Amino acid sequence: MSIYNIAVIAGDGIGPEVLQEGIKVLNTIAELDGSLHFEYTYFPWGCEYYSQHGVMMDEDGVERLKDFDAIFLGAVGFPGVPDHISLWDLLLKIRKSFDQYINIRPIKLIKGAPCPLKDVNREDIDMLFIRENSEGEYAGAGDWLFKGQANEVVLQTGVFSRKGTERVIRYAFETARKAGKSLTSISKGNALNYSMVFWDQVFEEVAKEFPDVQTASYLVDAAAMLMISDPKRFEVVVTSNLFGDILTDLGAALAGGIGLAAGANINPERNFPSMFEPIHGSAPDIAGKGLANPLAAIWSASQLLDFIGHEKYGQLVLDAIEGLLLEGEVLTPDMKGAASTAEVGDRVSKIVSSLM
Ligand code: NAI
Ligand code: MG
């Protein structure tokens, strides 16, 4: 029996509602397989916790998480707590403490998913974004001088270390090689004359180790345009923290919307747990009403299965999501359906059972 210890940080708003459905699907697989088991430990951290205790997570939170096999996270953020606090004191703290320097976001237009582009072949939208997740524009380096005065100055510095840049680019090359796909680097060397010139240089250096991988390199503004006008150019993509954040939201819109988009924060060396989450936020506008689409959380559960070595089940969950979309009957309101969050989770679990 393989037992996996999962830390669950359901968080705020719709976080707990959607995670529950992800867990439902994981448990369905575990029950039917019989040889694997998930053990969940729930941590009550988030904005509600902050309003009661003055902290987003306990002082020893990182220490308590470090021995889990994976972290499953819903969403954090709620009106009343400034977003930079909820983000920095929980999500970014975990990503940084556990050196989750790879953020993987699949942008794949599965069958049945809505796409705003006309005349596009479904197969042409199949990208794997690998976003730098530990430094860059989100390093938190900067200063705020002469606050409130006429000569006020704010600095936000991008931090691109050789180690940090090389490792994400090398990981992306390895991923592309394994998948037999091309690798595209997205940067902005014309305007960001230090950081992105360096990024481009490292990309060219590492490329020499992977002569079998076909490469392309675009400026971020051109890439944004091409993702719409010619999405099939992009297969595996590597980019910086900020550019990846923005472009993967654009990608989410191409591949079925925010209700479907998942992301994994990976520590490839497995020295620390990796974290799996839907990329949407806590959606306070629809929280507590059973309206939230759980498919993004379920897709992240599929990424979790991939990561712990059960790729067969990871694929099966994706097939089940595809099956649900093709049926088109049990969908939440964001996908023009009338089903509740739990009904979608139930249906996906049913389809999973039928595929096993
Ligand atoms: P959001 O993703 O929470 O919501 C944007 C829009 O999409 C809303 O209209 C919402 O109802 C809808 N939406 C989001 N997820 C949905 C789902 N699963 N099903 C159906 N509709 C869905 O982004 P917003 O409004 O900018 O942020 C709300 C809060 O979430 C903020 O406090 C923000 O800081 C936080 N946030 C947290 C993230 C995280 O924990 N990873 C990521 C993004 C935002
Ligand atoms: Mg984002």
UniProtKB/TrEMBL annotation:
Residues 5-348 form the Isopropylmalate dehydrogenase-like domain. SMART domains: Iso_dh. InterPro entries: ICDH/IPMDH, IsoCit/isopropylmalate_DH_CS, IsoPropMal-DH-like_dom, TTC_DH. Its EC number is 1.1.1.83. Pfam families: Iso_dh (PF00180). PROSITE patterns: IDH_IMDH (PS00470). The keyword Oxidoreductase applies. The keyword Cell division does not apply. It is an enzyme of class 1 (oxidoreductase). It catalyses: (R)-malate + NAD(+) = pyruvate + CO2 + NADH. Its cofactor is Mg(2+); Mn(2+). Keywords: Manganese, Metal-binding, NAD, Oxidoreductase. GO terms for molecular function: D-malate dehydrogenase (decarboxylating) (NAD+) activity; magnesium ion binding; NAD binding. Belongs to the isocitrate and isopropylmalate dehydrogenases family. This is D-malate dehydrogenase (decarboxylating). It comes from Cytobacillus solani.
